[in-house]
Amino acid sequence: MKLPDRTAKPGIQEQEMATSTLKQLTRLLKKLDSETTQIELLELGEKIELPVQALRILATYLEYTSKGKPVALIPVPTELTTQAAADLIGCSRPHLIKLLDKEEIPFTKVGKHRRVKLEDVVEYKKKLKARQKKYLSKIMSADEADGLYDS
Predict the structure, then answer these.
(1) What is the pTM of this model?
(2) Could you tell me if 41 and 48 are in contact, meaning their C-beta atoms sit under 8 angstroms apart?
(3) Which helix or strand (DSSP H or E) is residue 50 part of?
């Protein structure tokens, strides 16, 4: 199946429908406790079973669409090139290579080329964000102690 190439900005009517549908879907997702569910396509009178994760992805699509942002669905490989990993983290490829050499992110070599698992890059990015948040809290606390914020 070919993935739709949908990068155009959604129209006002599409945004309004997405907002309404997102509210309903979010409410229903909170009630689901299994990994699969059935939905019915009323126009066709058919029910299909699908993973609840697919509905969560749909909710994400609706969230962005409701805000007028274009959405694209891109399959993600489980192993990334160093450039793809650097792009995901938001750093340069040479910086990523330094992180790999310091063993901050695990990697494998395929011939002369390094490959990085997607999960490892995502985990590193989470740790990086947590560290940034911690340092930002310390800076804000120090600024408050110095009286730089109005009470």
Answers:
(1) 0.54
(2) yes
(3) strand 46-51
Tokens of 47: 């029910």
In the numeric block, which tokens belong to residue 70? 């274009």
* Long-range CB contact pairs, 121-125, < 8 A, 24+: 121/80, 121/85, 121/88, 121/89, 122/88, 124/89, 124/99, 125/88, 125/89
Give the separation between CA 28 and CA 23, rounded to whole angstroms: 9
**How many Å apart are CA 123 and CA 6, to the nearest integer?**
29
Query: Domains in the chain, ordered, with CATH?
Result: 12-66 (no CATH), 79-145 (1.10.1660)
- What would the pLDDT profile of 22-63 be if each residue is shown by its tens digit? 999 999 999 999 999 999 999 999 999 999 999 999 999 999
Strands (DSSP E) along the chain, which ranges?
Answer: 36-41, 46-51, 79-80, 108-110, 113-117
Per-residue confidence (pLDDT) for residue 112, from 0 to 100: 93
